């Protein structure tokens, strides 16, 4: 029978599909027949970005279009030849914006005496997105309803088993969604949201040249000497308290944390999305970080405990931004602007936010700050540079 055109009913009869069912079946058939033809572009043209998949083997799991396509590409690499998918029966059900298509199929690979024929049950869930049906979940399993070769249970028995499978699919889908949510949250802990989305969609993220950003560096004075007199647990606790506060400050002012190295903290305004307020945002954040450390210092002195003192440097200029690494990848920035921002920190003084002339030019007329010109100050590897201490008005 033409299983892609006709539909088997619960009582075993066959009828013409409705207009909506025809739309669903067309997308469903494109998804599977393109795969049989080894046309992955055609297949993934009708796949949702958040598609999930699990098959009959433990390793057959995928979450998201990029991961599932990579799984398919490996399969095509191992078997690049077209094959046929023939339906024994097919059923479609639609609930509002969700559709469910299930059927038993023969997958025939090769021809003649060398041909192989496998029986597979395919369950495909689709959802309507902006008026278009897209495949959102795929499950393959081995049918277990055959009594002997060529002999099958009644359709009522099949339908009951299908309902059990449907419940299992819904449960597994929910588990996959929960796992995807946890994976996404972990990814957003180490990458900006836009970069994370690009990585999930493409499997990679392109490096970008950004014409102007503002970088801030912080460093604790005498940290190495202090760490020799503190218990490791106390040292890590105090660092975590400071850097957690810095994270919240960065989020408040819309700047992106890049990394910590030892007792140094690096963040940047104007990434990953360029904006016109990056210098103001970074300077506001730097002043708030300085004030936080000053408040903690007062409490530590009152308790007779060691305390941190901070220097902060800020500079504005172009950078290249991108992801490095494979297993433990990291979003980072490069360029002379990074080196100069570091020199602003090392050329500063304790309790001060030291900014470059480039940053000063962008914030001097904003009315939120006052400045103490330092004149030309020697910066390691840079020669003499104009610098300014900045204060909150």
Task: Itemize the secondary structure elements and their pairings.
Blueprint: E1 7-8, E2 14-15, H1 19-36, H2 40-44, E3 47-54, E4 61-63, H3 65-78, E5 84-95, E6 98-109, E7 116-129, E8 132-141, E9 146-148, E10 151-152, H4 155-190, H5 193-202, E11 208-220, H6 223-227, H7 232-253, E12 256-261, E13 264-269, H8 278-302, E14 310-324, E15 330-334, H9 336-346, E16 353-356, H10 357-363, E17 369-379, E18 383-392
Parallel strand pairs: 3-8, 14-16
Antiparallel strand pairs: 1-2, 3-4, 5-6, 6-7, 7-8, 9-10, 11-13, 11-14, 12-13, 14-15, 16-18, 17-18
Q: Can you describe what's shown?
A:
It is a single chain. Strands 11, 12, 13, 14, 15, 16, 17 and 18 form an eight-stranded mixed β-sheet that branches. Strands 4-3-8-7-6-5 form a six-stranded mixed β-sheet. The chain folds into two domains: 7-190, Nuclear Transport Factor 2, Chain: A, CATH 3.10.450.50; 200-392, Nucleotide cyclase, GGDEF domain (Alpha-Beta Plaits), CATH 3.30.70.1230. Helix 7 runs antiparallel to helix 8 (278-302). It is built from ten helices and 18 strands. With 393 residues, it is of the alpha+beta class.
What features would you highlight for this structure?
393 residues; alpha+beta; Nuclear Transport Factor 2, Chain: A; Alpha-Beta Plaits; eight-stranded mixed beta sheet; 10 helices; disordered N terminus
What does this entry show, briefly?
By secondary structure, the chain is of the alpha+beta class. It has 2 domains: 184 residues, Nuclear Transport Factor 2, Chain: A; 193 residues, Alpha-Beta Plaits (2-Layer Sandwich), CATH 3.30.70.
């Amino acid at each position: 029978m033409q299983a892609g055109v006709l539909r088997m009913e619960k009582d075993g009869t066959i009828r013409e599909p409705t207009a909506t069912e025809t739309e669903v079946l067309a997308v469903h058939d494109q998804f599977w027949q393109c795969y049989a033809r080894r046309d992955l572009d055609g297949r993934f043209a009708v796949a949702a970005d958040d598609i999930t998949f699990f098959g009959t083997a433990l390793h057959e799991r995928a979450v998201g279009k990029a991961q599932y396509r990579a799984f398919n590409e490996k399969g095509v690499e191992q078997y690049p030849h077209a094959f046929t998918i023939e339906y024994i029966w097919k059923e479609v059900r639609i609930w509002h914006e969700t559709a469910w298509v299930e059927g038993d199929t023969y997958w025939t690979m090769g021809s003649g005496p060398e041909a192989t024929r496998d029986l597979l049950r395919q369950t495909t869930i689709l959802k309507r997105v902006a008026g278009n049906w897209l495949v959102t979940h795929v499950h393959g399993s081995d049918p277990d309803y055959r009594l002997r070769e060529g002999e099958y249970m009644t359709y009522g028995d099949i339908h009951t088993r299908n309902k059990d499978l449907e419940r299992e699919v819904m449960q597994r889908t929910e588990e996959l969604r929960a796992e995807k949510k946890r994976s996404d949250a972990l990814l957003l802990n180490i990458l900006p949201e836009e970069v994370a989305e690009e990585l999930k969609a493409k499997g990679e993220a392109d490096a970008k040249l950004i014409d102007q950003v503002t970088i801030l560096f912080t460093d604790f004075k005498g940290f190495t000497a202090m760490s020799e007199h503190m218990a490791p647990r106390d040292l890590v606790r105090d660092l975590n308290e400071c850097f957690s506060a810095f994270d919240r400050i960065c989020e408040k002012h819309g700047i992106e944390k890049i990394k910590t190295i030892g007792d140094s903290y690096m963040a940047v305004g104007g990434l990953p999305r360029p904006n016109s307020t990056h210098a103001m945002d970074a300077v506001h954040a730097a002043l708030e970080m300085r004030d936080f450390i000053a408040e903690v210092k007062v409490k530590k002195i009152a308790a007779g405990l060691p305390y941190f003192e901070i220097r902060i440097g800020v500079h504005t200029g172009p950078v290249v931004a991108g992801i490095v690494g494979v297993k433990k990848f990291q979003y980072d920035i490069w360029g002379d602007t990074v080196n100069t921002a570091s020199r602003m920190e090392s050329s500063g003084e304790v309790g001060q936010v030291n900014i470059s002339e480039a940053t000063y030019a962008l914030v001097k007329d904003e009315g939120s700050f006052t400045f103490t010109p330092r004149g030309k100050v020697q910066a390691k590897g840079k020669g003499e540079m104009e610098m300014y201490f900045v204060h909150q008005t």
